[in-house]
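[recover] target loaded
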């Protein structure tokens, strides 16, 4: 059994390009489906957030506004209800050591763009985890969290690495479009990552050594399965 730290955003709003506040949170499928796959494989999964804040799901990730089938929404809600005790009392990210975990897994929703992408605490944790060879996994807008891993000298820890993320095309088609304060795919390219995207809304997972990334909510279960495979190979 491996120990997996699931880092979830504690934000419930995102400042848009026009300065207005947009309600957000984690994407329900990305937490529920990922957690289910990882736990079913026998791994210990522990949730952490900045400040130990209780994370909240993005409301649209549980209804038709987010393109979520009603049956799927009920299933995701039921799973989240079943892990409510974990979500109610997450670890404080500042108290976590990268050395204690075999993998770090960051699901998305737009919320990580608010806190995780600019967290020096998370940046240091991801950099340390990567250097020691732990599996570093991120999904959809959760890949924005990798942008936190920039050293004092401006060096991006994942420069030159192949990864995927919620694509600019997907943001234009079904995300926030030009209201988004920045674009995850574009930002990571600017930092020096080699971003590889599949067709919009396809399940697309990219592995580069110990780095595992998924493109969108449709990639949730497959991203978790690839993490399970990566851990099994150790």
């Amino acid at each position: 059994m491996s120990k997996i730290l699931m880092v979830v955003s504690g934000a419930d709003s995102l400042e848009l390009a026009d300065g207005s506040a947009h309600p957000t949170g984690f994407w329900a499928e990305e937490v529920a489906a990922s957690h289910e796959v990882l736990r079913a494989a026998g791994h210990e999964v522990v949730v952490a957030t900045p400040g130990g804040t209780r994370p909240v799901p993005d409301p649209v990730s549980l209804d038709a506004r987010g393109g979520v089938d009603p049956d799927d929404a009920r299933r995701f809600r039921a799973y989240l209800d079943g892990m409510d005790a974990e979500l109610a009392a997450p670890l404080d990210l500042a108290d976590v050591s990268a050395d204690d975990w075999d993998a770090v897994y960051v699901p998305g929703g737009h919320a990580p763009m608010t806190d995780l992408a600019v967290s020096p605490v998370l940046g240091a944790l991801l950099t340390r985890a990567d250097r020691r060879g732990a599996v570093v996994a991120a999904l959809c807008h959760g890949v924005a969290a990798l942008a936190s891993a920039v050293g004092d000298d401006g060096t991006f820890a994942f420069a030159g690495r192949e990864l995927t993320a919620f694509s600019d095309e997907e943001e234009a088609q079904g995300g926030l479009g030009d209201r988004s304060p920045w674009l995850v795919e574009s930002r990571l390219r600017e930092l020096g990552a080699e971003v590889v995207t599949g067709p919009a809304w396809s399940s697309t997972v990219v592995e580069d050594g110990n780095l595992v990334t998924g493109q969108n909510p449709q990639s949730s279960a497959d991203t978790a399965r690839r993490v399970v495979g990566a851990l099994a190979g150790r």
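[recover] notes: The first strand starts at residue 3 and ends at 7.
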